[in-house]
Design a protein that fits this description.
23 residues; mainly alpha; 1 helix
């Protein structure tokens, strides 16, 4: 079971990555 805040943060990071993919 992952931490709720960690999952939310990871999701937010994923969205940010889609907005400006550094890769």
């Amino acid at each position: 079971v992952r931490n709720a805040p960690d999952e939310a943060a990871q999701r937010a990071i994923s969205r940010a990555s889609l907005k400006h993919p550094s890769n």
